[in-house]
Amino acid sequence: MSNVLIVHAHPEPRSLTSALKDLAVETLSAQGHTVQISDLYAANWKAVADRADFLEQTQPDRLSYVAESRHAFATGTQSPDVEAEQRKLLRADAVLLSFPMWWFGMPAILKGWVDRVFAYGFAYGVGTHGGERWGDRYGEGTLSGRRAMLSVTIGGRAPHYGERGVNGHLDDLLWPIQHGMLFYPGIQVLPPFAVYQSDRLSEAEWPAVAEAYRRRITGIFSDRPIAYRTQNGGHYDGQQVLKPGLGAGETGTRIHLVQPGDPKEVLYGSDRAAAATREIEACSGS
Predict the structure, then answer these.
(1) Among residues 111, 203, 192, 103, which one has the least CA distance to residue 155?
(2) Looking at the predicted structure, is the pLDDT value of residue 50 above 70?
(3) CA within 13 Å, CB half, 153
(4) What is residue 264's predicted lDDT score, i.e. its pLDDT?
(5) Which terminal residue of the chain, N or C, has fewer Cβ atoms less than 10 Å from its own Cβ?
(6) Which residue range is the domain that position 93 belongs to?
(7) Which of 76, 115, 105, 93 is CA-nearest to residue 34?
(8) Could you confirm whether the keyword Oxidoreductase appears in this record (predicted)?
């Protein structure tokens, strides 16, 4: 069986978001998986990236967070809480990010988890540059071979997040998280599970939501991931711009999804083979 890390970011244990987290633990455990939880509010996670993240500093007079992160990761002088979360990620075969959508993104405490844990040399600054290759990222990297899914509770109505919805399409709103924070270091990302009008969910509606979530959790190791183009698969030129002829008929971020008829990517590593399987699946929430 596999190891699953749930990174949970909600301040109220009795919230819908927390209920979904508990249901994920129950479902995964029943399947025989080992589940570990990073409950950021319960742990009073330090969200601010600053000098305290490094046990020693190479430039004490002026903080360059990138340079200090690189040095600390390479020398084993990161803050112990950061190192502990990195070990959890390396042990995990799948990662669930559990959070409410606040102001069109994740809560600050979860963004702070990413800022601090995804250190230079761990999640970015990995691999070498040469020709059209710009390091090991977007489908490659330290976290390759893992899967991830977002479990998001949303106060607004589903049509508000559709193709013509006033809030913008949910896929676009989650792009910085799914493509930028997860696919960048190599994680294959499943379509998100979203519950709309979460603050109005009644007890009578909960069983249907719970059953839908169980189905998604049960398929975390078998469902197809979002078909993001890999950076080093031959679809981008030396400036990391999508080559002519690709993405025809699509606009915005959807041009970065593998489409029917696209040339087969030359993938680096067998565990990335699923990246080119198909277009993104539309998520309708619960």
Answers:
(1) 103
(2) yes
(3) 22
(4) 65
(5) N
(6) 3-223
(7) 93
(8) yes
Q: Is residue 183 part of a domain?
A: yes
**Is residue 284, in this structure, part of any structural domain at all?**
no
Q: What is the largest CA-CA distance in the chain?
A: 59
- CATH, residue 108: 3.40.50.360
Domain contains 270: no
Q: What's the pLDDT score for residue 285?
A: 34
d(CA 181, CA 113): 11
Q: Distance of CA 211 to CAs 14, 75, 175, 187, Å? A: 19, 46, 26, 26
In the chain, alpha helices (H): 16-30, 65-75, 80-91, 108-117, 170-173, 175, 206-218
Q: What is the DSSP string of 2-40?
A: -EEEEEE--S-TTSHHHHHHHHHHHHHHHTT-EEEEEET
Place of tokens 């169980």: 214
Number of domains in the chain: 1
Q: What is the gyration radius of the CA atoms in the chain, in angstroms?
A: 19
Q: Which residue has the tokens 């593998």?
A: 258
Strand positions, DSSP E, 177-251? 188-189, 193-195
Within-domain flag for 81:
yes
Give which of 145, 121, 142, 229 is closest to 185, Cα–Cα.
142
Instruction: Tell me the β-bridge partners of 129.
Output: 134
Q: Does residue 113 contact residue 62 with C-beta atoms inside 8 Å?
A: no
Q: What is the pTM of this model?
A: 0.87
